[in-house]
């Protein structure tokens, strides 16, 4: 069974970026469903950290940040969590 979820354009861009990085690293297409499944498994392993989050914080816009393909800034710590075992 699949469910449709609504996410902001910013969140969708971050998911696309993570998906592209994993696809390049594995040299095999990773579907959005596989990505989200993996991310939820990682989130469950870090449940204590998630429970301590009071309110999601948005990154401040830094005009001095390098400009990437999708805008300013980077993926943050996404790689740390995606590739952590």
What does this entry look like structurally?
Residues 53-85 are annotated as: Disordered. The protein has 85 residues and is mainly alpha-helical. It has a domain at 8-51 and 74-85. Helix content is 51%, strand content 5%. It has four helices and two strands. A two-stranded antiparallel ribbon has the order 1-2. A hairpin with a 2-residue loop joins strand 1 (67-68) and strand 2. The longest helix has 18 residues, at 9-26. It is globular, with a radius of gyration of 14 Å. It starts with 8 loop residues before the first helix and ends with a helix. The relative contact order is 0.15. The model has no long low-confidence stretch (mean pLDDT 79).
Contiguous low-pLDDT stretches (5 residues minimum) are none
- Portion in helices: 40-55%
Main beta sheet: strand number and arrangement? Answer: 2 strands, antiparallel
Provide the gyration radius in Å: 14 Å
The separation of the N and C termini measures 27 Å
Q: What characteristic shape results from the CA principal axes?
A: globular
What share of residues are in beta strands? under 5%
pLDDT averaged over residues: 79
Oligomer: single chain
Instruction: List SSEs in N-to-C order.
Output: HHHEEH
Report the strand count: 2
Lateral strand order in the biggest sheet: 1-2
Which structural class fits the helix and strand makeup? mainly alpha
* Number of helices in the DSSP assignment: 4
């Amino acid at each position: 069974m699949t469910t449709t979820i609504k996410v902001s354009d910013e969140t969708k861009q971050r998911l696309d970026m993570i998906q592209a990085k994993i696809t390049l690293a594995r040299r095999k297409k990773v579907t959005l469903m596989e990505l989200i499944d993996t991310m939820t498994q990682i989130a469950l392993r870090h449940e204590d950290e998630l429970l301590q989050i009071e309110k999601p914080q948005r990154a401040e816009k830094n005009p001095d940040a390098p400009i990437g393909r999708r805008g300013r800034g980077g993926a943050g710590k996404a790689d740390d969590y995606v590739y952590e075992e």
